[in-house]
TrEMBL record:
It holds the Pfam family tRNA_m1G_MT. The gene is trmD. This is tRNA (guanine-N(1)-)-methyltransferase. GO terms for biological process: tRNA N1-guanine methylation. It comes from Rhabdobacter roseus. Signal peptide: none annotated. The lineage of its organism: Bacteria, Pseudomonadati, Bacteroidota, Cytophagia, Cytophagales. GO terms for molecular function: tRNA (guanine(37)-N1)-methyltransferase activity. Specifically methylates guanosine-37 in various tRNAs. GO terms for cellular component: cytosol.
Length: 224
């Protein structure tokens, strides 16, 4: 999989993709992530990429020309499954969308900033608009990092234990059960005995019960 991220603050993203699981995924060539500086596609002397909103009002708007130039440069080289715009008025990100996107070959993520992008960018180039929650961030970069992380960890071979994504919270509309590790007793608090029983079926049953209990308590909306 290849992910191209377009941003006017690329430095925000560089360190994120250079570490941990995301670094390993790239080193092992499961994914390639490229961060593009929108300013490299500006046409003006001062490399401006934004301007005042027509009609007035506070806040700058990202202009269509640098974005169009960047997108067309990328799209001339390969075809993309989706061109995703990260925006607080997009569809709320859900695990099922992440699952689908993890099957893509090539994705473009466009990060908004200020008051967002010229509407014509959305009309002409964007195939999917995604929000990561009902709160406002100062830019789409953190949202793009969240989306890319959620996608990349599902690409086959990226996780150490390939089954571990299957037991994630949300993967079957249930929250994940509690987990424990050593020591067996901490200040009098013991690990549930069933987990040490070695009885696979009982352990699975306990975990399922705990998932249901946790979901009912914390996210009854998921049980419907
Ligand atoms: Cl995708 N962008 C911004 N700026 N804020 C957000 C968001 C995206 N998702 C939630 N809040």
């Amino acid at each position: 999989m290849r992910i191209d991220i377009i941003s006017c603050v690329p430095k925000l993203l560089d360190s994120f993709f250079g570490h941990s699981i995301l670094k390993r995924a790239q080193d092992k060539q499961h994914v390639e992530v490229y961060v593009h500086d929108l300013r490299d596609y500006a046409t003006t002397k001062h490399r401006t990429v934004d301007d005042y909103a027509f009609g007035g009002g506070a806040g700058m708007v990202l202009q269509i020309e640098p974005i169009a130039r960047c997108l067309r440069t990328l799209q001339a080289e390969r075809s993309y499954d989706e061109v995703i715009y990260l925006t607080p008025d997009g569809a709320l990100l859900q695990q099922r969308t992440v699952n689908t996107l993890s099957l893509a070959q090539n994705l473009i993520l466009l990060c908004g900033h200020y008051k967002g992008v010229d509407q014509r960018v959305r009309d002409l180039f964007i195939t999917k608009e995604i929000s990561i929650g009902d709160y406002v961030l100062s830019g789409g970069e953190l949202a793009a990092a969240v989306l890319a992380d959620a996608i990349i960890r599902l690409v086959p071979g990226v996780l150490n234990d390939e089954t571990s994504a299957l037991t994630d919270s949300f993967q079957d509309d249930l929250l994940a059960p509690p987990v424990y590790t050593r020591p067996f007793v901490f200040e009098g608090h013991e690990v549930p005995a069933v987990l040490l029983s070695g009885h696979e079926a009982n352990i699975e049953e306990w975990r399922h019960e705990q998932s249901l209990k946790r979901t009912a308590e914390r996210r009854p909306d998921l049980l419907k």
